[in-house]
Fold each of these.
Amino acid sequence: MEIDITNVVDAAKDSLGKAVEHLRHELAKVRAGKASPAMVNELLVEYYGSPTPLNQVANVSLADARTINIQPWEKNMLPVIEKAIFEANLGFTPMNDGELIRISIPALTEERRKELVKRVHHLGEETRISMRTTRHKALDIIKKGIKDGFPEDEGKRIESQIEDLIKTYNEKVQALVDAKEKDIMTI
């Protein structure tokens, strides 16, 4: 049992790091008025009967700050990709010229910016919920260990390490959310 308790801090740190990394990944998908390949990279398209991420069937690049170019490796994928973009309801219209698909990113309205900020805050809250779950699991392991004979003062020390970790990672989450909110609200 002692091994579980001594590794609980490392396991919690690993889990919290993954939660913050997931938040970074999700925030990259939220558009902030500028074009970014991350906005469409993981869009699923039907490729020979199986859903496949767009970046595995086409080259996604930026033409300029507000235009995404999607060049499929097979021309017969153009209508399939175009359909997937429409169905994803991303808020922009693809233009197919027979060679590649261009997506012009329209300027964000104030109302749309506020919706995106709400989405960013929601993603931050989901990350915090995941972090609280990690904390509860770690504290349960410690309490069970103390009940099974692990030294109580050592258990309290590990509990305080867990709380410090949670505080540190909460600050990271808040910094990411604040930065993305600033990015969205900047005109």
Note: Strands lie at 44-47, 50-53, 58-64, 67-72, 94-96, 101-104.
Amino acid sequence: MLPENNLPELPPYSLDVEGMDLGSDIKAVGLELIGTESREPVRGEEAASIWAAVIPALAGEETWVLDFFSHLDRVRDYSKGHEVEFREAANRCLVIPQLPADKLRELVGRFAGETFGLRCGAAANEADVAVESELSRRGLDAYQDAYTRYTFCAICEPDDGWVTLLSQSLWPSEIIRRARPALQPFRVHIARPQ
């Protein structure tokens, strides 16, 4: 049934997927999760559920890990209290191996206000001392030199509705193809802004 104005109802959320220009040496794609009408970042439980569905969809069958480099005491305490496995990777870096959907959703919801990283690919099967040391020293700028060793590295800023994905192999069209099935339960419109 159509609304009174006979226009189809818009999905409540939109995921804009767009190539980004971060310089000639860096291939990046931005994913922005926003309210379709408000154009504001989606926050809260619904956003955490959406991002928790998108992360494993983008990774597919490949190994992925999350990198935290700030507020480490809070991340450590949360992980211990919620039976989330983690590894003290370097002076100021905690690495959390891929999680089941429910634990990922809870973790993303709890740390939505933080910026954290995501590495995906065969290189994530082992500790990456070089990138983990650089994460401790430089934060997520470390991905700029490391992302070519991975299928992708991503900078996650859930409360801002934003994920910046660095990849030599994933174009916006492939990201959309991977994300679309995971987003169907949430009524998210996927767009490629011009």
Note: The chain has six helices and nine strands.
Amino acid sequence: MVTTAHRSFIDELVGFDRLLEIGMGARDDLAVALRERGRTVVAVDVSADAVNRTGGPAVDVDVRRADVVSLADAADPIAALDAAPAIGRTERDRRREPIGGVDAVYARNLPAELQRPTVALARRLDATCLFTTLGFEGPVVPVKRLTRPGTTLFLVERTDGSADGTGPIE
């Protein structure tokens, strides 16, 4: 079942072509929905166990074992993502293409301690960053609040002051 909050997040993210999901865990539904809409999605998680709890990611979701803190600190975050081991159910699921670039970095239920490294990674990739927080925590980084049906999304602007790199946020 697609919730209103889930649909709102998809509606915000579908405007980007190449996306990176931070901390996918056992929830591949958002990445799958974006892939079904023709978007390229790569997801990362520190734990293969979390991702494999539900039998692994969907066949068309490229999931890699990586830590957002290490990626944010890497000399070349794209190369670090490309080198990260795949998480998948079968060898067929483990095949993947080089990332090339990222237009948006997103996360659901992003804990406060991972917000700064997630934003740092997005900025290093020159990508927009969108996230939701754990219900009891607020954002600890400067954000624009986007109130949408069923949820509040937090938008971190690109360094040029725009959400998509082309102009001001309306």
Note: The longest strand covers residues 104-110.
Amino acid sequence: MPRSVNHVAARARRKKVLKLAKGNFGSRKNVWTVAKNTVEKGLQYAYRDRKTKKRNFRALWIQRINAAARIHGMSYSQFMGKIHASNVDINRKVLADLAMNNPAAFEAILNSVK
């Protein structure tokens, strides 16, 4: 009895991986074994960095709020403490955006919690 091989599915599987490897340098984009390793590693990084991205943005927002608060003579921790104490329900993302793009509104919030 002849050996049964499903070339259609195997080809489709390889094409899918090679499509994901598009844009890589040299043999990483067209050699099956190298491309497969590259794509697997890339997907691992993508999974990991979706979580890291949230961390990085929170850190950026905190830096921006801190810089804007210090212009008005208050540290980040003092500012956030007073915001929570006065029950102003506004998140760091919005505060950072106001600090960057609308300093007058940020100053108004800061004066209201002082």
Note: The chain has five helices and no strands.
